[in-house]
Write a structure and sequence with these properties.
By secondary structure, the protein is an alpha/beta fold. The chain is built from 16 helices and twelve strands. It binds pyridoxal-5'-phosphate.
Length: 413
């Protein structure tokens, strides 16, 4: 009997990372010596789930009115303001005054991506995604009746492949008028790659040249891991300040993740921030995404919004949180240095890595490598011709241990 639609028939959740992380969690519950490097969540040096103290402090201060009532589909104002100030940093006033800026609460960064996909392309059109990528983008595209095509992240020297970005946009413009170009930077998932500021400036030049009234470009900036860039907050916000150079034919949507920035994974809170020089485009952004919010999930977690509004918007929480995130970035950096050094020692090749939650190791037989590692009580994420190691969730000691084991798995699997 055909109950589901033709479109729904093809739906098979391929989120193998979530699936593999459940297996790893169960294995670790039974045996504490299991190493769980499957998923992008922060764990401390004892491999216990990490919670920011400032977030916990705010959590304890919230009353029922700030947790349980309905609010609205756009999100409460203190949340939207606090997120915008956090995202734009010292450039907030500029974007608020000189550009058209709108903020909408979303269920995680995922909600921001999905809303953008549903409002900026017609059914059957394609989004332009990075390769390699966080594979959930493709499911989000399908859910919104879209296809996808990819641009290569890296050239032969491991640099950001601006040439391929350019050619991919030009090719897609032959098929459809509007382009959604998705970029996940810094600390790209799954590789840990980060663009340099001059690469961003070149990218902005390319987008400006290729965008026109007939061919508008929506730049979807997936900034989920921005606060773990080892170059620090001022550096990353300087890069964002360069978005002011994008012309009136470009709409920039920034996807903020409360999961990653504040460790609020299960609360499902994030935001989409639209900036444009075109007032009408800004109003359409607000209307269409507010409509999507109401139609898809009605509104976001009140609890999550008040938590973030207070941590990012009120003292002493904000200062405390800024200090904590610096500490966390520092321990992630230490872990990555240990891991990458050890990879060099055992001659294990990784995808171009600069910093962040993950390191990716290319391999032909990722599932076999995964299976071999499981026999050694190590759980990683097979991601299709590569395995991804979540260094965010394993101790320094395990960062030192793993490259040798992975090398062995590559040789034996
Ligand atoms: C690259 C990237 N973008 C966005 C997200 C969305 O996360 P969330 O919806 O939990 O904010 C993730 C989560 O893993 C991710 O890796």
């Amino acid at each position: 009997m055909d109950f589901v639609t033709k479109h729904a028939k093809n739906k098979k959740d391929n989120s193998s990372i979530i699936f593999k992380s459940v297996i790893a969690k169960e294995a670790k519950a039974k045996d504490k010596s299991v190493i769980n490097a499957t998923i992008g969540m922060l764990y401390d040096e004892n491999e216990e789930f990490y919670t920011f103290k400032s977030v916990k402090d705010v959590d304890l201060s919230l009353n029922n009115e700030q947790k349980f009532p309905y609010t609205n589909s756009v999100g409460i104002k203190p949340f939207c303001d606090a997120v915008a100030k956090w995202v734009f940093g010292s450039y907030y006033d500029y974007f608020k005054e000189q550009e058209n800026l709108e903020v909408i609460a979303t269920p995680g960064g995922s909600g921001a991506i999905s809303n953008a996909f549903s409002n900026y392309l017609n059914p059957g059109e394609k989004v332009l995604l990075p390769d390699p990528m966080w594979t959930n983008y493709t499911q989000m595209a399908y859910e919104n009746h879209l296809g996808y095509t990819t641009y290569k992240m890296f050239d032969d020297n491991g640099n950001f492949n601006l040439q391929d970005v350019k050619e991919s946009i030009i090719n897609l413009q032959k098929e459809q008028n509007r382009i959604i170009f998705v970029i996940n930077d810094p600390c790209h998932n799954p590789t840990g790659f980060c663009l340099e500021r001059n690469e961003w400036q070149e990218l902005i030049n390319i987008i400006n040249k290729l965008a026109s009234k007939e061919h508008p470009i929506i730049l979807f900036y997936d900034m989920a891991y921005i606060d773990y860039d080892k170059r620090g907050q001022e550096f990353t916000r300087q890069t964002i300040s360069d978005f002011r150079l994008l012309n009136q034919n470009v709409l920039t949507i920034l996807g903020f993740s409360g999961s990653k920035t504040l460790g609020l994974y299960g609360i499902r809170i994030g935001a989409m921030l639209g900036i444009t020089k075109d007032k009408k485009a800004s109003l359409e952004f607000l209307d269409s995404c507010q409509y999507s919010a109401r139609a898809k999930y009605s509104m976001c977690s009140t609890y999550g919004m008040y938590l973030i509004a207070k941590v990012l918007g009120e003292e002493p929480y904000l200062t405390n949180f800024k200090n904590e995130i610096k500490e966390v970035s520092a321990f992630i950096k230490e872990r990555s240095e240990i891991f990458i050094n050890e990879c060099k020692n055992v001659n294990l090749k990784t995808e171009p890595f600069k910093c962040g939650f993950f390191v990716t190791i290319p391999c032909q037989n990722d599932e076999a490598v995964y299976d071999y590692l499981v026999t050694k009580k190590v759980h990683v994420a097979p991601v299709g011709n590569a395995i991804r190691v979540a260094i965010c969730s394993i101790s320094k000691e395990h960062c030192k241990l793993l490259p040798k084991l992975i090398k062995e798995a590559l040789l034996k699997a």
